[in-house]
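FAQ

Q: What does a record look like?
A: Structure on top, sequence underneath. For example:
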């Protein structure tokens, strides 16, 4: 692909991963059209928005014109974790499964050959109680996703792969739990939560004693994985699934590594185990395939990401830690509540009849008397 001529449609391009990927695409010479509902605002792409074409809309209703002059699509949109999926299972299914297929069919209709889909390693989840299935999974493993989010992603995968042919090249990226700083920051991801807690609480809490496994990967490495799949020959990636992971760690070990990295920056925190069960997920995956086929290797370790995040926080980035924008489920609940209130009362600054609210006028004593 000749990058100076390529235009990529980036669905969800203002999100946590999308904004990091948009920056990487621009640096590589791609033209980028972002399609995003801007649920979380535009802070993720505000710094370089003049270099993007941004279209605001719902991925469940994408106009055909979105694909004008587009050579490839990267879909990192939709609901992105278990709490948001379970908050509204219907919306989760519509975005992560149905919209994925609808966009693929639109690509085939418009002659867009390459379609990269953001899936998740959570489809490998076996929980902490099934020791016989506690193995390292590769892309050929049989899976039985359980949670609504994982089920919707897996079904989206299957619908995409069924559409593959010589003219259409779907590629699936199953990402581990992502960490690291993004201009559309999230503090509801395990490593990022640990760093945030170090600054706000002075300790890290590991639920269920930290026994569960997590495959982990930095957001910048994720962006480079998408670039690798865009740049690769079609014959290498058509109808392929790639796990995108840096390393598999128990959460207890992750906490120790975070603690050690923070210590190098003069931040001392203790680790507090909580052994109560919290609906724990646990899974390990193998990511050798993407290295073998595409030469992609992760470069940002847990420790490097922790230090980078700590330095950015100390520099004043994303330090309003309780802002609900940094927590996907908290933000969706807030938006739903605001929407419900506005439907009942109208927007706060608009009068019920649609006119602008007039400024109040102080009534003087004689005016009050005359009014009687």
């Amino acid at each position: 692909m000749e990058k100076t001529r390529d235009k990529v449609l980036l669905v969800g391009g203002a999100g946590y991963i999308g904004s990091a990927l948009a920056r990487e695409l621009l640096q590589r010479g791609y033209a980028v059209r972002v399609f995003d509902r801007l649920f979380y605002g535009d802070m993720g792409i505000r710094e370089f928005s003049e270099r993007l074409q941004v279209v605001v809309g719902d991925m469940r209703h994408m106009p055909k014109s979105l694909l004008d002059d587009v050579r490839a699509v990267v879909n990192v949109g939709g609901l992105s974790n278990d709490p948001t999926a379970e908050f509204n299972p219907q919306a989760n299914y519509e975005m992560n499964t149905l919209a994925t297929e609808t966009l693929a069919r639109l690509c085939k209709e418009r002659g867009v050959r390459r379609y990269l889909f953001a899936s998740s390693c959570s489809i490998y989840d076996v929980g902490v109680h099934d020791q016989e299935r506690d193995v390292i999974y590769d892309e050929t493993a049989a899976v039985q996703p359980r949670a609504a989010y994982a089920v919707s992603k897996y079904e989206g995968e299957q619908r995409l792969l069924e559409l593959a042919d010589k003219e259409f090249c779907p590629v699936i990226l199953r990402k581990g739990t992502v960490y690291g700083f993004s201009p559309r920051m999230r503090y509801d991801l395990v490593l990022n939560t640990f760093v945030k807690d170090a600054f706000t609480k002075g300790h890290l809490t590991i639920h269920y004693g930290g026994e569960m496994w997590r495959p982990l990967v930095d957001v910048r490495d994720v962006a480079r994985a998408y670039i690798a799949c865009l740049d690769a020959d079609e014959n290498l990636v058509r109808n392929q699934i790639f796990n995108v992971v840096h390393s598999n760690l128990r959460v207890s070990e992750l906490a120790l590594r975070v603690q050690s990295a923070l210590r190098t920056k003069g931040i001392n925190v203790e680790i507090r185990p909580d052994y109560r069960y919290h609906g724990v997920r646990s899974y390990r995956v193998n990511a050798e395939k993407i290295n073998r086929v595409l030469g992609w290797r992760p470069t940002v370790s847990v420790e490097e990401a922790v230090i980078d995040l700590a330095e950015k926080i100390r520099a004043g980035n994303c330090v309003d830690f309780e802002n609900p924008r940094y927590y996907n489920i908290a933000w969706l609940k807030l938006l739903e509540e605001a929407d419900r209130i506005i439907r009942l009362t109208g927007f706060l600054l608009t009068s019920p009849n649609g006119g602008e609210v007039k400024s109040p006028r102080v009534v003087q004593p004689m005016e009050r008397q005359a009014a009687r």
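Q: Is there anything notable about this one?
A: The chain has a mean pLDDT of 91.
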